[in-house]
């Protein structure tokens, strides 16, 4: 079982498409982001609700509607996304097994349970290092890494695909409004 959920991975990939780089747009709908990446739309919608609650994205209204980053990509860390999606859960939950040794007859001596469990201490140190590392990397950093390894044509394709989808929605809604007003008149 992973400590960091699939939801974090989905969220990070989607947020990269909102970073305003040459391979990204300023805003996009959850439906389009889900379809673009082949991820479940309902699940992604729940993730974006969490991202919005954590003030990492802002919902946009109107025909084009969707989400955009709430602040610049260089001010959103990977740790921000992990915490928004998975919460502040600990890497390790110590069950204090050290006090359950059969030779203690249900009465562990003080020396056996004094201080922090040695195993727990190692896990806490590992978690501290992991969180520090995740905090050092921003969406802008990740975006640069992705852009560096992809051909420029890919970024253009993605931007055009997302833009076309938003434009088609505008056209569909305008057509729907026009047919509704003609029916009533």
Automatic annotation (TrEMBL):
The lineage of its organism: Bacteria, Pseudomonadati, Pseudomonadota, Betaproteobacteria, Burkholderiales. Transmembrane segments: none annotated. It comes from the Bacteria. PROSITE patterns: HTH_RRF2_2. This is HTH-type transcriptional repressor NsrR. It comes from Cupriavidus numazuensis. The gene is nsrR_1. Signal peptide: none annotated. PANTHER family: TRANSCRIPTIONAL REGULATOR-RELATED, WINGED HELIX-TURN-HELIX TRANSCRIPTIONAL REGULATOR, RRF2 FAMILY. InterPro entries: Tscrpt_reg_Rrf2, WH-like_DNA-bd_sf, WH_DNA-bd_sf.
């Amino acid at each position: 079982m992973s400590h960091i959920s699939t939801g974090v991975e989905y969220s990070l990939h989607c947020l990269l498409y909102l970073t305003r780089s040459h391979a990204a747009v300023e805003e996009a709908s959850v439906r389009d982001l889900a379809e673009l990446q082949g991820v479940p739309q309902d699940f992604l919608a729940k993730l974006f609700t969490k991202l919005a609650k954590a003030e990492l994205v802002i919902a946009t209204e109107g025909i084009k509607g969707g989400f955009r980053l709430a602040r610049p990509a260089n001010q959103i860390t990977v740790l921000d996304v992990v915490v928004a999606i998975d919460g502040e859960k600990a890497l390790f939950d110590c069950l204090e097994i050290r006090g359950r040794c059969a030779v203690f007859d249900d009465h562990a001596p003080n020396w056996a349970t004094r201080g922090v469990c040695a195993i727990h201490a190692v896990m806490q140190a590992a978690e501290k290092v992991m969180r520090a590392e995740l905090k050092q990397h921003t969406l802008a950093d990740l975006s640069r890494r992705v852009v560096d390894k992809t051909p420029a044509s890919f970024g253009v394709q993605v931007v055009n695909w997302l833009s076309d989808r938003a434009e088609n929605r505008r056209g569909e809604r305008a057509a729907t409004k026009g047919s509704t007003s003609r029916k009533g008149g």
